[in-house]
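Cross-check.
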Amino acid sequence: MAASLTLELAGESMQLLADRALFWPAQAVLFIADLHLGKGEALRRGGIAVPRGGTREDLLRLQHLLDETQARELCVLGDFLHGAASGGGWQQEWQAWRAAHAGLVISVVAGNHDRRLHRQAEDWNLTLQEENTPRGPFRLCHIPRATPGHVIAGHLHPRVRFPGLPGRWPAFLIRNGLTILPAFSRFTGGVVPAGEPGDTYVVCLDGQLAELRHERKPGKAVGDRQSRER
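Predicted model, tokenized:
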């Protein structure tokens, strides 16, 4: 096991990173999915007692990845926010982080939780992109879909079991023409995806990556679960 794994996707050399990110060296782009900024505060407003500090931890992890890869662009594949884009201390943390990275290009494919993001995208120095945006040999999506080109997406928060370890672990799901990223935010749940023969899971195990092959009989396609909001 290692902290990164280099694979060829659609003819491009791509690096899968154990901290739930995908790096495209040729374009110096770091991809993450499902950042869910403000989720903790949204839950607390709803009366659910959850610990504070989730946004700060996620931004520190993101800083480490940018330093490590020297990426010039960050692309968030949906659910940048977790609902309303107003109120809460997480915005101050994000604005301070953004100011410290003013030269970094940040593009966001708006996800199902990003309905209000367009109102503040310019203020936050973000560029919004449409679902299914072409980028080289890839199609950038939030929701996995069947379309010409290799889709890079999020939304499903894939988690799988790993032999000998308890619980379910975040994982990349790699299929012919499709790569689904694990949720970047650690403050998220996830689902065990319905696999297909030939699927590969690259499992994130506390700073290390391990590959698993799907061996069960075919189930429903990934897209059959894509409409569920996370």
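The chain has three helices and 15 strands. Residues 16 and 22 are 5 Å apart (CA to CA). Passed to J.P. for a second look.
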